[in-house]
């Protein structure tokens, strides 16, 4: 088995999500073969190497997925330092080490997904996936149409950030209260409460009725159940391995929607037209040979190819006078025998 990044190994073992696993590494909680590793990006072989977290060796587990109906007055953590009731008391029947995907406030009830699959948790929590979360809220009311429109288009929170557009539907109302159904795709801390406070209202009761399409209909508060095969397949297709998801552009630190992907050769851009007065660039392709003029062919007695292979040499004045100024193939290239005879006569 090939080596993998430590944070991926921790996530697959159900220790935590990849982001939380990175903090465990940098804080010095992880050892590989007895040596503390603090550098992110370090790799290990989950089969051959001994990977430990706080002295406990990791053992790969089969990924499991559970849906919990979290009741009010329960902390979304496995260990609360204040001693409050946590979800750990609700998942004692699960043998695998699972952790919650996201959080719900202490007084918020509803859908909570638990798993030991770190890759799935990371995908569902990543902001680019825009996982829908549906809440049923009872607010101090009433709320006029202008307040509802502000919730739909986005409000500025107490920290100066503006929320993304949300789907808001009014279920019913009376003189003192209003019941809303809100669908958001963000995961800011206490976001529904802060959105209500931005329009001068207060949330009296809040429940999450859907998360990534998962619902708790028919599931009593404090109970959990495993995901069905159809629910798990939908999660993987939509969020873990989405089809047609925004593709990253190489060399850019962002995503472009519907970026083209070419299976074959990349299309080449058309050459720009030369501007007036600009020097022409030398061509990288071989230029065609110019045709040999008839007068040149008669004078040399050679083809263009021969002339290019052996350039012409200047004709001496005596030889030019003897031949009447014409240069034939014999005068242009005298034989070795004639050259030796002429040398002997001069001597």
What does this structure look like?
The structure is a single chain. The chain is of the alpha+beta class and 347 residues long. Among the domains are: 4-57, Roll (Structural Genomics Hypothetical 15.5 Kd Protein In mrcA-pckA Intergenic Region, Chain A), CATH 3.10.290.10; 65-126 and 218-240, Alpha-Beta Plaits; 132-211, Alpha-L RNA-binding motif (Alpha-Beta Plaits), CATH 3.30.70. Helix content is 25%, strand content 20%. The protein contains 11 helices and 17 strands. The strands form 4 sheets. Strands 7, 8, 9, 10, 11, 12, 13, 14 and 15 form a 9-stranded mixed sheet that branches. Strand 11 (167-173) and strand 12 (177-184) form a beta hairpin. Helix 1 (6-12) packs across helix 2 (18-26) and helix 3 packs across helix 6. The longest helix is centred in the C-terminal third of the chain and has 12 residues, at 229-240. The termini are far apart. The model is unreliable at 245-278, 282-286, 303-310 and 328-332 (pLDDT under 50).
The assigned CATH architecture of the domain at 65-126 and 218-240 is 2-Layer Sandwich
Task: Return the CATH topology of the domain at 65-126 and 218-240.
Answer: Alpha-Beta Plaits
- Given as residue ranges, the uncertain stretches (5+ residues, pLDDT < 50) are 245-278, 282-286, 303-310, 328-332
CATH hierarchy class name of the domain at 65-126 and 218-240: Alpha Beta
Strand % is: 15-25%
